[in-house]
């Protein structure tokens, strides 16, 4: 895990409720419908933003409160980020809520006005500011029997409103390239373990058998035409451009990714190495625009540049990313649409969470025919030695067939991904033909698609 040593700061946002157990705090004293400790008073300072917001809504301008709260949040976070950056040790900075959460509590019109007036940009403050987002689904959604207000000084809304606010808070982060949703499908202890597991996977920390590996990446082939935008829940669209780079070592893969909205971009350099100690290692580094342009000079002419539109959305508390391949590209990519998510479900339970408004043809998890590395190759697959079955160098039997066929053979791998900026990174990874081959191998730790 040498790559871990290169990282200094990892910025994690925890959003949503923390679980299903009832709190043990004393019952709150309410005053005018607001918890007493949050009533605005010069002698009573609270750090609870939720209660402050409830209080200020009764006595002041919610818009100005949110604006000043965000300014304060940015300054506080920057202070800790800078302390982490200058530390001589690796740092994990956990943010209880993040910048985008505020958008769940004001109208879209006010939010857009706030972004314009402060020259704030969602790509920078959502995608580039934080390495990872984990949304803990409220007990009001799936564990209603554990949801209560009488023992929570910061909770006053009923189940229906809590469920609505929880969805809005999760939706605020749609589009972040590494966004995990932890639902209430397990008991509280396992819910926390799943959250810790998500962080460990992203950090590249070997958790051994201390936590059970519950989820894997699954990929599906989607048939067009695309349904209208109105058929989708709230979504975010991104333009994504991938360049593969020349590599000196055998079976090492390097690529650049440019991802953005409305002319604002983030830049990621990814190196994927062969198996080391039973795991494939991915090292991701956030780049400046200048560094990105400099590294483009190393582009590998054996690969097409990949252009995609990525649509991110939530369905049934499940986060999906759908890649729509665009021209120019190899003819094998024409009309290609791939849907990906991370889940521990299998069989009918997996089928039931998939978006009903999409025409899903089949699952293609683990099939190298659908890896971006192979899809980008300029040469015909039957006439190239560059086709990648696996980074592990094993003798893999995989009968290549055109995209859209029913090839199901692939190699199972245990993959750990890491990120190596000294500051915030918003990254995810692509498969390169070494995804999970079968449902029986659900224990593997795989990177998300880039």
Automatic annotation (TrEMBL):
GO terms for biological process: photoreceptor cell maintenance. Residues 405-432 have a biased composition (Low complexity). It comes from Anopheles sinensis (Mosquito). SUPFAM superfamilies: CYTH-like phosphatases. Residues 404-450 are annotated as: Disordered. GO terms for molecular function: GTP binding; phosphatidic acid binding; phosphatidylinositol binding. This is AAA_28 domain-containing protein. It holds the Pfam family AAA_28. It comes from the Eukaryota. InterPro entries: CYTH-like_dom_sf, NadR/Ttd14_AAA_dom, TRPL-trafficking_regulator. Residues 62-190 form the NadR/Ttd14 AAA domain. Coiled coil: none annotated.
